[in-house]
C-alpha cells in the first residue's frame, strides 16, 4: 500500500489506460469494526458495502477480505477516514494509524494506493439520522459504521470531482 495525497488518488485513477477507472473503497476504522463503502463505477456516488469485525488476531484475514474486494470491485484506491483537527481524539488517531500499518505489513495490497480524508463528525451525523429508527444497539452500531464510511467516501468524491472538473482542459 502506498499513501498518496487526496487529489492524486482520483487523478491516478483517471490516468489509467482502461475504459473505466477503478473504484474507491471508503473505510471508517474503529476499535471493533471497519465500516466499508464503495463508489459507483463513475466515482460519483458512495454506497454502503459492509462492516468487517476487527480484532488484533485477524489482520491477515482482513487483508484477504480487502484483496477480494479490490478484485471484485476493481478498486484502485482506499479513502480512509482520519480524525484531523484540534478536536481529534489521540486514541482514534492511533487506532487508524495502527490499522493501516498492520494492513501494509501484510504486503497483500502492494499495488493499492490510499489517502486519508477528514472523518470528523461522520459517525455523529449518521448516529443522529439512525436514532429515530429505534434499531437494536448492535444493528445501529454496524449500520453507523457502514454509513460513516459512506459519508467519508462521498465527501471525498464530491471534493475530488469538483476539483478535477474545474481544472482547465489540456
Written overview of the protein:
The protein is an alpha/beta fold. The chain is 47% helix and 22% strand. It has five helices and six strands. It has a six-stranded mixed β-sheet with strand order 1-6-5-2-3-4. The longest helix is centred in the C-terminal third of the chain and has 30 residues, at 137-166.
Rg for CA atoms: 16 Å
Strand order of the largest sheet: 1-6-5-2-3-4
Mean pLDDT over all positions: 84
**Helical segment tally?**
5
Beta content: 15-25%
Q: Please give the share of residues in helix.
A: 40-55%
Kindly report how far apart the N and C termini lie: 30 Å
Q: What's the helix and strand layout?
A:
Layout: E1 2-3, H1 6-15, E2 23-29, E3 33-39, E4 46-53, H2 59-73, E5 75-82, H3 90-105, E6 113-118, H4 122-130, H5 137-166
Parallel strand pairs: 1-6, 2-5, 5-6
Antiparallel strand pairs: 2-3, 3-4
Defining key terms:
6 strands; 5 helices; six-stranded mixed sheet; alpha/beta
In short:
The protein has 170 residues and is an alpha/beta fold.
